[in-house]
């Protein structure tokens, strides 16, 4: 699992981004991944661990299986 810091997350829009600790490009995170991970919310500056999943249609990666680190 990778670790990163929540850069920003907007619950109204239902998405945000995580800045990986390894310095790679920011990772998209959708509200559905947060809900499936049984987290109440993501807040700016929160450190989380996550796995990357590639979307079959778009080919873009997003964070899934989130856990508070």
TrEMBL record:
Residues 1-68 form the CSD domain. One of its GO terms (cellular component) is cytosol. GO terms for molecular function: DNA binding. Keywords: Cytoplasm, DNA-binding. SUPFAM superfamilies: Nucleic acid-binding proteins. InterPro entries: Cold_shock_CspA (IPR012156), Cold_shock_domain (IPR050181), CSD (IPR011129), CSD_CS (IPR019844), CSP_DNA-bd (IPR002059), NA-bd_OB-fold (IPR012340). The keyword Cytoplasm applies. It comes from the Bacteria. The keyword Signal does not apply. It is found in: Cytoplasm. PANTHER family: COLD SHOCK DOMAIN CONTAINING PROTEINS. This is Cold-shock DNA-binding domain protein. It comes from Beijerinckia indica subsp. indica (strain ATCC 9039 / DSM 1715 / NCIMB 8712).
